[in-house]
Amino acid sequence: MEKPLHPARSAVLRRWFFVVLALAAAVILLVRFLAFPTSTDSPAWANTVGAVLDNLLAAVVTSIAIGLSYVLLLPSPEAERVEILPAKSISGALESAARGCTRWSVRARTASYFARKILPVLKDNALHSGGSIQIRIQLLDPENDAAVKAYAQYRSNKPGASAAWSEQRVRTEIYSTILAVAVCRNEAPRLDIEVGFSPDFWVLSLDLSDDSAFITGQNKGDPCLVVRQESDFFNGWRDDFDAGFLMCRVVKPSMPSMRMSDFKRPSAATLNEIRSLFASVGLTAVGDLELREIAAYMRRDHNYA
């Protein structure tokens, strides 16, 4: 539903506001100086009426001045529809949007933050509301060696990050996101989740809720650009996501018997189920050591380093 227009935004209402005040000022001036001119011979009641008219005129002039200031200082509509959030406010804004949405699209390289922070909120939303939520996740293809290598090298360019970022870490984060998606689908069946494997990588992350687009950097401390649905740019960001998703290989990870608690001490059977999950979505280049690392990664918090 389209939001009602703020009165200050309406050119018609602004015009009538100032016209009425101007006419009121003109009438008061005429009455004041023609019917009740200032004179020492005027009776007391006439002087009283004149003082009242003086006060009314001052109030009208003040209203005109305040109205002009408000109109001139009022931010443009587009400025109100686009907001920059400081880093400390990003997580709260994303979680708040996730609590009341019916669809969510995210484009992130490994989507580690989404899987650990936002996906659980979406799961709780679906369980509490009883409604379905459509989720689309765009990730790097973990078996696209060129894309994974390029992203690992890009992240390693940051001072002190060369040891922290490797191709193996990129793949492990992606695999753990896929695993988290499969488990959440099991715990909240009304989550309709599609995962798209992209042959490219990108720098800015994009989260799209029903009415907002959140564009964030990949480093801790980066601010967030929020584009509201009313902005002329909102549909552009949605179209950009849709176009990229068309280039992805889309899968629906499912793991009906698995719970998040199963990763505390994964058994051989659990590892085999994880292997079967990856095979079901066409990811076969996962060894036993990698499976254990992925299961261990599920118990970790998101790490920006």
What can you tell me about this protein's structure?
The structure is a single chain. By secondary structure, the protein is an alpha+beta fold. It folds into two domains: 7-74; 80-297, Endonuclease, Chain A (2-Layer Sandwich), CATH 3.30.870.10. It contains ten helices and eight strands. It has helices spanning 11-35, 44-73, 77-81, 87-99, 112-129, 145-156, 167-187, 234-246, 268-280, 288-297, and strands at residues 82-85, 103-107, 133-140, 191-198, 205-208, 212-216, 224-228, 249-251. It starts with 10 loop residues before the first helix and ends in an 8-residue tail after the last helix. The model has no long low-confidence stretch (mean pLDDT 86). Keywords: Membrane, Transmembrane, Transmembrane helix.
Order of helical and strand elements = HHHEHEHEHHEEEEHEHH
> Helix proportion of residues, in percent?
40-55%
- Count every beta strand, where a strand is a DSSP E run of 2 or more residues: 8
The CATH topology of the largest domain comes to: Endonuclease, Chain A
Shape: elongated
Please identify the structural class as seen in this structure.
alpha+beta
CATH architecture of the largest domain: 2-Layer Sandwich
Q: End-to-end distance, in Å? A: 41 Å
Mean pLDDT: 86
Instruction: Work out the helix count.
Output: 10
Biggest β-sheet description: 8 strands, mixed
Low-confidence stretches: none
Q: For the CA atoms, what is the radius of gyration?
A: 30 Å
